[in-house]
Amino acid sequence: MTDKTGIFITLEGIEGAGKSTVLPFLTEQIETLGYTVERSREPGGGPLGEALRAIFLNPDLQLDVEEELLLLYAGRHNHLRSRILPALAAGKVLLCDRYEDSTIAYQGGGRGVPLARIAELSHWAGISRQPDLTFWLDIDPQLAAERIRDRRPDRMELESIDFFRRARAAFAERAASDPKRFCHIDASQPLLQVQEQLRAALLTRVPTHRSGNG
Ligand code: Z5A
Q1: Which terminal Cβ of the chain has fewer Cβ within 10 Å, N or C?
Q2: Burial of 151 by CB count in 10 Å (0-12 exposed, 13-18 middle, 19+ buried)?
């Protein structure tokens, strides 16, 4: 699973699945295995991506899916070269809240863009590195929506429940096609049980880091 040095781990799932909630716990658990963890997120991550994130999520803007994709891949290119690859080269674990699987799920599954078209754009943008391990926090969209109902919605959260059902189905398809990388987590369970699933999965999937220098 490790490339020359670091490990690239991502967290995926529909909004309200609990990704932000489990990030500190997951970080701690990975550190316990002896790694230095750098956390990041998408949209965002690099300086350009963070600037574009505000545009991407702005509920006052009406973007079409081509505009969404161009924003996402400009940010992803910048994220990859300025944060992800340097962190991996330094031997760290780069732990990222969302990455390209979210594009497959939301712009592909949710908005219906053919996956071949997304793959073409990804190739053109030079997205050369995929995660080594992806935790998919899976939850029913209705339950997820109830968890976040008191929050002011961002642009994507204004979408219908059917949109999130299609996104979930796209995550499921992706996970089934790559079981070696994807780890399914039942995110509908109480937090302690979600954490226990993550801890157990980490122990089986990530080796203890022994050299102590990364
Ligand atoms: N997007 C895209 O379209 N294409 C792309 O390529 C990429 C992204 C990369 C921004 O993502 C949006 O961009 C996202 C996809 C799109 N849009 N949507 N919709 P984001 O990651 O910044 O936003 P998010 O996914 O919407 O984050 P979120 O709503 O914060 O979800 P979360 O991090 O998974 O959930 P949470 O904040 O940790 O938890 C939500 C609530 O549930 C909170 O009150 C918790 O206390 C509670 N919670 C958490 N876990 C539990 C459990 N186990 N039991 C009970 N309650 C819980």
Answers
A1: N
A2: exposed
Distance 20 CA to ligand 1 centre (A): 6
Residue 12 alpha carbon to ligand 1 centre in Å: 9
Q: Domain holding 117: CATH number? A: 3.40.50.300
Binding-site residues, ligand 1, Cβ < 6 A = 13, 15-21, 42-43, 57, 72, 97-98, 102-103, 106-107, 147-148, 156-157, 190-191, 194
Q: Looking at the domain assignment, is residue 211 inside a domain?
A: no
Span 19-66, pLDDT tens digits: 999 999 999 999 999 999 999 999 999 899 999 999 999 999 999 999
137 Cα–ligand 1 center, Å? 10
What tokens appear for 50 in the block? Answer: 């963070």
> Which among 30, 31, 78 is positioned nearest to 201, based on CA atoms?
30
Residue with CA closest to ligand 1 atom 16: 156
| Domains held by the chain: number | 1
Q: How would you list the strands of the sheet with 37-41, edge to edge?
A: 37-41, 93-97, 7-12, 133-138, 182-186
Closest residue CA from atom 48 of ligand 1: 18
Please tell me the distance between residue 148's alpha carbon and the centre of ligand 1 in angstroms: 8
